[in-house]
Amino acid sequence: MASKVVKRAFKYRFYPTDEQAQQLARTFGCVRYVYNRALAERSRAWIQEQRRVNYVDTSKMLTAWKRDPETDWLTDPSKGPLQVALQNLQGAFDKFWRKQTAYPKFKKRGKSKDSATYFSNCFTYRDGRIKLAKQTEPLDVRWSRPLPEGAVPSQVTVSKDAAGRYHISILVEDAIAEHPPTDTTVGLDAGITTLYALSTGEKISNPRHEKADRARLAKAQRVLAKKLKGSANRAKTRLKVARIHARIADRRRDHLHKLSTRLVRENQVIAIEDLSVRNMVRNRKLARAISDASWSEFRSMLEYKADWYGRTVVAIDRFYPSSKSCSTCGRIVDKMALVIREWTCLCGTVHDRDINAAKNIRAAGLAVLACGDGVRPSRG
Fold it and tell me: Is-contact 186 267, C-beta < 8 A?
């Protein structure tokens, strides 16, 4: 069975000592400061001088900031995370210039996730224990699953989320065996009431994790709104709200991982719609439900797992009339409101809206693989 070597990250939770927590807090603060100051310098250079500043320029600036008596505290943390912050900023600008994202924003304390990345020369890994640069003790990592045998970490990223939890992501090279080839193909139609409808006739129910905890979340947010800003009680209540959000996100991610793993294992080709989620969430009535479904995150999981295990994910045109086309005769109806969940074609076939759409998506996906992108049904 064929296998491929891929770079894979393994994420674990760890519990720092008080000294380690303080050192990490200083590192997170320095990373945030370097990112924001470099962003401000790049913005100023463009606005005032019409000059672009690149990563090399900001790296020279960082050296000067460390020598400045007012910011010599930048020498306290390891140099690796600060350099990575500048690289991340360069990557953000590259995506902006390619019109993939908006202009980079400043990182705000308490608003954005704290993280720091260490390259191989900034940490040690011996006997299953990791010690970061400028720390005297190894981290207390809870190894929920072992690293691949003989794996040597090339970099680690430590982070602290809004719920106060510390995690470490360890990047290693791993040999992954491809799944045995199969003739099974499937089409997926994304929905809200039903999370996904499969062309096989199966419907995956939507757990609606956010809706299940909505009452708890609303109550905690009401209590938070009444607390005095800057008070210790507000900080405690904010932590409670963050933990509810973390619980929702963890359960949602776990469900999507299980579903994507199953679909990749069972099918050789998976056809999906190329949905514009960013535009769809502008609908105020459906924005919360669409966000809870996490269609974009699920597609990302499908794509990287398919690449690992020798499967194919094909996305069809988002304007393809999958719901309005008859999967039996190919006839397309002019209009179909969202409230219509079952309809009968002129050929006499009774369709479940979602299952019919999934069948059409599967057929269109196979056509795209055979003939190339841009395949649409004939209106003849």
Answer: yes
